[in-house]
Inverse folding.
C-alpha cells in the first residue's frame, strides 16, 4: 500500500508537470526536498539527543516505571501484547503526554524511543507489530489539550481571543482519537492482518 | 485568564522538566551526566537512521505539490467539502495536513494573515491545525527509526483519523463560530 502511494505521489506529480509543460519544477522540487529532508534530520539530532538524555536520567531513576505503573489499567487494554513493566510503556506515555501538551519537539524523541522498545518485542523486524500500529494510531490522532503552535500564530496576528479555538480542538481531536483507537482495535482483532499470528 | 495560564505553562514546562528530572535523578543516586550522555548518543543514531526514509517521502510529496497535481486533487474534492460547510479557501490545508506539518502551518499562517485570525476561515484553519498530526511524517519517521518497511494497516487508521478530525473540525466550527 505504501509502495503504491509513494509511486502515485511521485509519478502523478511528474506526469502532471509534463502535461502542464512545467517539467523543470520536478527537478527543483525533488532536489530541494532531498536536501530539506537531511536538514530536518540534522535539526532533530540536537533535540533528540537532549530529550533522550533527559529521559535516560528519568528512566534510570525509576520515574518512568512509576509513571507506567500509574497508567497501567489503560495501557494494558491498549497494548495487550506489551508486558506492563516493559520500557516501551514509559516511552509511549511520555510521547503521548508531550503531544497532548503541544510540546511537538519533545514528543518526537520519546516516540522514536517507544518504537525502538516496541521493535525489541517485534518478532518480524521489517513488519509493524500490533502494538506499533496502536501506538501510531494514538500518536497521529492524539487528543490535543494545548495546541501551542497555533495559539502562537494567532497571537502574532493580534487575535482578540487566541485561545478560543482550544475547546474546538479538543472536541475534534477527541473524535479523531476515538475513531483511530476503535478502528485499530477492529483491525487488530477482526481483520486478517490482526488474526494471523 | 486561560490565555495567561497557557502562556505560563508553555513558557515553564520545558525549563521545569530540565530542572526537575536531573534533580530527581541525582536524589535517586543516578550518575546524571553519564546517564544523559548515554541517552543522547541514542538520539544521534536515531536521527541519522531516519534520513533515507525522510528523503524518500519528502521528495515524493514535494514533487506532487510543486507539479500542480495537488491542485487537481483539491479541485476534485472541493464540491464535497463546500457541501459540508467548509469555505473553499481552507481546502489546500485539508489536503496538506496529513502530508506536511510545516506546509500546513504555512498555509494556516497565510490564511490568518489574509483573512484575520478571528474570521471564520482563520478559526477553522486554527482548529484544523490543532486537531491531527502529520500522519505521513509520523509514520515515515517512527517506522524509519527502527527499519519497519511494512506498515500493515497503520496508514488506513491514520488517514481515517485525519478525515474524521477534519470533518469534526468543520462541524464544530460551524456550530460555535458561525
Amino acid at each position: 500500500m505504501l509502495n503504491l502511494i509513494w509511486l502515485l505521489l511521485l509519478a502523478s506529480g511528474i506526469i502532471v508537470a509534463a502535461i502542464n509543460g512545467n517539467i523543470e519544477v520536478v527537478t527543483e522540487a525533488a532536489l530541494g526536498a532531498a536536501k530539506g529532508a537531511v536538514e530536518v534530520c540534522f535539526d532533530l539530532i540536537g533535540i533528540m539527543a537532549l530529550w533522550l538524555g533527559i529521559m535516560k536520567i528519568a528512566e534510570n531513576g525509576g520515574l518512568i516505571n512509576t509513571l507506567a505503573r500509574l497508567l497501567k489499567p489503560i495501557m494494558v487494554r491498549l497494548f495487550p501484547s506489551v508486558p506492563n513493566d516493559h520500557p516501551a510503556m514509559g516511552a509511549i506515555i511520555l510521547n503521548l503526554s508531550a503531544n497532548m501538551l503541544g510540546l511537538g519537539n519533545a514528543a518526537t524523541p520519546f516516540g522514536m524511543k517507544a518504537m525502538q522498545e516496541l521493535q525489541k518485542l517485534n518478532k518480524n523486524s521489517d513488519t509493524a507489530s500490533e502494538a506499533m500500529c496502536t501506538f501510531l494510531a494514538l500518536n497521529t490522532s492524539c487528543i490535543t489539550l494545548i495546541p501551542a503552535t497555533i495559539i502562537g500564530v494567532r497571537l502574532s496576528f493580534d487575535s482578540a481571543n487566541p485561545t478560543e479555538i482550544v475547546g474546538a480542538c479538543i472536541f475534534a481531536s477527541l473524535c479523531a482519537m476515538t475513531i483511530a483507537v476503535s478502528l485499530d482495535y477492529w483491525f487488530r482483532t477482526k481483520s486478517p492482518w490482526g488474526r494471523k499470528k | 485568564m486561560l490565555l495567561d495560564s497557557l502562556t505560563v505553562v508553555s513558557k515553564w514546562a520545558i525549563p521545569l522538566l530540565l530542572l526537575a528530572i536531573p534533580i530527581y535523578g541525582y536524589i535517586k543516586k543516578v550518575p546524571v551526566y553519564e546517564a544523559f550522555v548515554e541517552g543522547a548518543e541514542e538520539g544521534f543514531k536515531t536521527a541519522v537512521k531516519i534520513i533515507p526514509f525522510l528523503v524518500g517521502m519528502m521528495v515524493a510529496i514535494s514533487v506532487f505539490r510543486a507539479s500542480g497535481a495537488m491542485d487537481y486533487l483539491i479541485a476534485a474534492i472541493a464540491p464535497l467539502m463546500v457541501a459540508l460547510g467548509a469555505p473553499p479557501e481552507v481546502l489546500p490545508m485539508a489536503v496538506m495536513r496529513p502530508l506536511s506539518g510545516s506546509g500546513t502551518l504555512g498555509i494556516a499562517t497565510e490564511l490568518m494573515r489574509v483573512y484575520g485570525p478571528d474570521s471564520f476561515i482563520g478559526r477553522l484553519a486554527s482548529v484544523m491545525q490543532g486537531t491531527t498530526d502529520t500522519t505521513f511524517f509520523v509514520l515515515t519517521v517512527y517506522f524509519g527509526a527502527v527499519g519497519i518497511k511494512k506498515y500493515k494497516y497503520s496508514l488506513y487508521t491514520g488517514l481515517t483519523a485525519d478525515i474524521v478530525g477534519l470533518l469534526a473540525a468543520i462541524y464544530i466550527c460551524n456550530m460555535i463560530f458561525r
Summary: Chain B is about 80% helix and 0% strand.
